[in-house]
Amino acid sequence: MEEPLIDIHSDEHFMRLALREARKALVATEVPIGAVIVHEGKVIARAWNQVETLKDATAHAEMLCLTAAQSALGDWRLEHCTLYVTKEPCPMCAGAIVHCRPSRVVFGCPDPKSGAAGGWINLLQSNPPLNHACEVSSGVLGEECLHLIQSFFREARAKKKEIPRREYRFDRDDEL
Fold it and tell me: Could you say which of 21, 30, 62, 88 is catalytic?
């Protein structure tokens, strides 16, 4: 019996590459979100969350990946590109995505509280004031993507409970 061939052009294949980036974030104690951008069947950019590493609130995986892809193509327009990201983009990232104009966005797990690709709001599709709309596919390896993020936050909460809090007491006459 022959082994099934791996389709290196499938959404699952590229999402696995995004998950690999997310695991890099996990090792760096960052929220484990990863992204890759594909153009003509080839990965042209990859990134992982680096908010804490770079001390930059805008250093989301999607933002870093968009910048790398623009450098790779030599153009700010990412037409005919697909962005794969392990979690539904936030409003900041969705805004940048719309302006960069990739054809598709594929994400793993939804974010019903702050997702901007249909979870909380949808900035990527049918938004008349914006100049571009993306095709969106969701749920690709969604359980695996969700498990990685949930595990990170579960562990972070457990560590937070372990750290003893110091209590400070000041009398009225004490100076701070």
Answer: 62
**pTM, entire model:** 0.86
Q: What is the mean pLDDT of residues 77-101?
A: 97
Query: What is the four-CA torsion angle of 81, 131, 93, 118, rounded to 10 degrees?
Result: -90
Spatial neighbors of 33 by CB under 8 A, at least 6 apart, are: 22, 25, 48, 49, 60, 61, 85, 86, 87, 149
Tens-place pLDDT, residues 17-35: 999 999 999 999 999 999 9
Q: Which of 98, 119, 97 is nearest to 108 (CA)?
A: 119
141: left (phi over 0), alpha (psi -120 to 50) or beta: left
pLDDT: which is higher, 160 or 121:
121
62 is catalytic: yes
Tell me the β-bridge partners of 43: 38
End-to-end Cα, the chain, rounded Å: 75
Listed residue (77, 68, 119) closest to 97, CA to CA = 77
Query: CA separation (Å) from 79 to 3, 7, 22, 82, 109?
Result: 35, 23, 24, 9, 24
For the stretch 57-84, pLDDT in tens is: 999 999 999 999 999 999 999 999 999 9
> Is the CB of residue 88 less than 8 Å from the CB of residue 110?
yes
